[in-house]
Prior knowledge:
The structure holds two protein chains of two kinds. By secondary structure, chain A is α+β, with helices and mostly antiparallel strands. Chain A has one domain (3-88): 2-Layer Sandwich (Alpha-Beta Plaits), CATH 3.30.70.260. Helices cover 37% and strands 39% of the residues of chain A. In chain A, strands 2-3-1-4 form a four-stranded antiparallel beta sheet, with helices on both faces. In chain A, helix 1 runs antiparallel to helix 2. By secondary structure, chain B is α/β, with parallel strands linked by helices. Chain B has a single domain (1-334), classed as Anaerobic Ribonucleotide-triphosphate Reductase Large Chain. In chain B, 43% of the residues lie in helices and 18% in strands. Chain B contains 15 helices and 15 strands. In chain B, the strands form three sheets. In chain B, strands 1, 2, 3, 4, 5, 6, 7, 8, 11, 12 and 15 form an eleven-stranded mixed beta sheet that branches. A two-stranded parallel sheet of chain B has the order 9-10. A two-stranded antiparallel ribbon of chain B has the order 13-14. Chain B starts with a helix and ends in a 9-residue tail after the last strand. The chains are: A alpha+beta, B alpha/beta. Chain A binds chain B through residues 5, 7, 33, 35, 37, 44, 46, 48, 58-59, 62, 77-88, and chain B through 1-4, 6-11, 62, 65-69, 251, 254-255, 257-258.
Amino acid sequence: MKKTIITVVGKDTVGIIAKVCTYLADNKINILDISQTIVQGYFNMMMIVDMNEADKDFGIITDELAALGESIGVVIKCQLEDIFNKMHRI
Amino acid sequence: MINMFEVAETNKMIEQENLDVRTITMGISLLDCIDSDLNRLNDNIYNKITTLAKDLVKTGEEISREYGVPIVNKRISVTPIALVGGAACKTPSDFATIAKTLDRAAKTVGVNFIGGYSALVSKGMTSADELLIRSIPEALSTTDLVCSSVNLGSTKTGINMDAVRLMGTIIKETAEATKENDSLGCAKLVVFCNAPDDNPFMAGAFHGVTEADAIINVGVSGPGVVNTALKKVRGESFEVLCETIKKTAFKITRVGQLVAQEASRRLNIPFGIIDLSLAPTPAVGDSVADILCEIGLEYAGAPGTTAALALLNDQVKKGGIMASSYVGGLSGAFIPVSEDQGMINAVVAGALTLEKLEAMTCVCSVGLDMIAIPGDTKDTTIAGIIADELAIGMINQKTTAVRVIPVIGKGVGETVEFGGLLGYAPIMPVNQYSCDAFVNRKGRIPAPIHSFKN
């Protein structure tokens, strides 16, 4: 099972997690882990998700999440987990 | 499990420090395309390239999107055309038709460059080799994406001075043939000593005859990432400096390894090698010269530059080698002048000369690269510059190369603009004294004593 990392970075505002999670639920994307902090008013969130049950293509989900981010005023990125594992684990 | 800081570090490298995979290069053997009929040969070449590489660009873009890391170039390298075209080509213009076919195939599949318009003449030239070399000015002035390279020497064979002399003239003719575009043709033409068979970088990529039918080679990059890491250890000891470069090189190379394996799997073509290189681009912050400054030099070219570069090059290899099982190509720090804003600044400030660049090439890959020189530089002087650089490669058992651009109609103090990844460059002065009598001797320089290892 390939996991995906979703990162959300931007100015803190009401409902960021709610909107992102709603989108994920609507698209049958299962959240495995969430961590989140606020540094100097900036919202930082990382989610590890499983997209295996999702109906849409990875590319479409990436685009839709990016667009959702734009509407909230944050940057949302979707990347396969491998790139981080390769870089930070021997 | 991966934590937030690690994710943030990787994404900062990509977004702010120009971490990217510089190129996925598909090597394609054209040996099975050989035919004595020129039209049939051209058809075979076009068909093979457009079949094997049809999904290369799309796959590169998919990988880039899924991992969120830019893959800047998708390229193709082919078997040296002098070997492929020998049976069919009777004139330089016959060879030039193959260049046009390569150009057409490259445009069809959408790659940035296609390399391998090449001849390997380190000991002697066949008539096909010589015809191909003589066709280079026509080939490069009538195509957009074709890159050409000629291997003129090796540690095992010595230096073919007849070919060196010829290339001095060919480089000038190529400059003349493309003078409307600031002699851009010469930016796509490189000569080598000890050319590797699996180099993914242009202009010198070709698919060696020792390679399989098709192969995926990947070149990584990331001078900006190394530079940022070094900012955090200012004033620390050499040990700390070296550790930092090694760790950073490891991380960069692992991304390249991942992309290479994915590309290989998706295209169903074997993975060849990772080229561990620090390859700069003209973008601010993506400079090898800036790393040298961060190590402690006022400008690249100041005393200490060669030592700093030797250290950098060695640590990049030590860090990278653990990240990938198959390392090859050129692997080291590149120091092209026009493609590196820090190098350009050093030349403009008067800190960096051709002679210092030559010294720097003794300790890094790959050679005198993307250097603009006055358009009235003599053929023999260019041949002399080539001979010097190749001698460094021959004696030190390393790859060296020369890619100089004599810019027709321009002189020292003027600037030439190549555009895109090729950047721009101030024209550098060349030593004015003659080497005519040396270059005009016939024959070759013998292989050095330490090549006899059997």
